[in-house]
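We modelled each protein-ligand pair independently. The example shown here corresponds to the adenosine-5'-triphosphate entry; the chain sequence is given first, followed by the ligand as SMILES.
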Amino acid sequence: MLKISALNQFYGSSHTLRDVSLNVAEGACTVVLGRNGVGKTTLLKCLVGLLPVKGGEIELAGQPLTRTPSHRRVLAGLGYVPQGREIFPQLSVEENLRIGAYAGERNQTAKGKQFSFDDVFHTFPVLKTMRRRIAGNLSGGQQQQLAIGRALLTNPKLLILDEPTEGIQPSIVMEIEAVIRSLKGSLSILLVEQFFDFAQAVADDYVVLVRGQVVSAGRGDQMEANNVRALISV
Ligand SMILES: Nc1ncnc2c1ncn2[C@@H]1O[C@H](COP(=O)(O)OP(=O)(O)OP(=O)(O)O)[C@@H](O)[C@H]1O
Ligand SMILES: [Mg+2]
């Protein structure tokens, strides 16, 4: 579904991504692991078009996206849940979701699963209970669920999640894990994660970044044997 080939990116003279290649198979989840500052978020920003790349190719379902503007990548089927969630804190839960749905309505030619408000409320019941609340007043975990719901309403072919468990209470981490498992099959997922156990629980495939380079890659069930724990522990 997603093919990233030999991606290179610089911040000024600092070479942040070095020949990064990875794939996400259709209906599967690839996890990107790595310590703080190795370039995980930079990789996702290049993927969604928020940062330009110096070289390399990005292809979604056979469609080249490397030079496509960001809003068109959303319409092509990239659903992005940024690190720190970036919901609109002054708007209500429902208004945040409507922003996702607005892109989703224009996205109905995409072949992926189509998500309705009811689907999102079924997945995250708390969002239904809190639909009129101001989003900024939700807990961190609830805001994460809202950000995922908003991304699902864009009807993505590929859901992209940047450290969804960061700073979130364990019960909601478990809910998010269950949601990722249940979404697999109907869409493809690229997950950035630093928690080994969470990553292993959802990964079909994995890559580990160290200083902007892929140093280990394989099937999710090889993570333990390939000593991924040591590569990401601090
Ligand atoms: N806008 C920027 N300008 C210059 N350097 C940056 C910028 N954003 C990030 N960097 C640097 O690029 C490197 C990669 O940062 P990035 O945010 O991609 O890491 P990360 O793996 O997502 O880290 P974390 O796990 O802490 O979120 C870091 O050394 C960071 O300091
Ligand atoms: Mg990051």
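The two ends are 32 Å apart (CA to CA).
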